[in-house]
């Protein structure tokens, strides 16, 4: 069981783990041992996810999300399979926990009267400075 929040948990049978060889430095160990983890979670068809959370996860423009709605996380930071497995599960839990929080609705506001006056006053000042710079008032010889 992957505990995401106190009220939301994902059963292990919904998670598919595949162990593959890691890339990068490490010499012979990297070439022989499959320590990297590819964790797959079907967001679109998961019965344990509430509908609003599923919708928020699917609406994200995330390159880890396939067209079928499967979230694929790859973990290969650590040298051991167990630690990479834990890392992938923690990252999945953080991702789902972030989707449980509903975003705040934006309230449209208007500029205050004072801010409008300050903006227009600054524009007037700038305009007079530019007008005084023009060559029409200069005597040329």
TrEMBL record:
Stretches assigned to coiled coil: none
GO MF terms, alphabetically ordered: peptidyl-tRNA hydrolase activity; ribosome binding; translation release factor activity
Top-level taxon in the UniProt lineage: Bacteria
Family annotation (InterPro entries): Pep_chain_release_fac_I
UniProt domain Prokaryotic-type class I peptide chain release factors: residue ranges: 21-37
BP-aspect Gene Ontology terms: rescue of stalled ribosome
Biased composition (Basic and acidic residues): 114-128
Positions of region (Disordered): 104-141
PANTHER family assigned: PEPTIDYL-TRNA HYDROLASE ARFB (PTHR47814)
Protein name: Prokaryotic-type class I peptide chain release factors domain-containing protein
Taxonomic source organism: Arenimonas malthae CC-JY-1
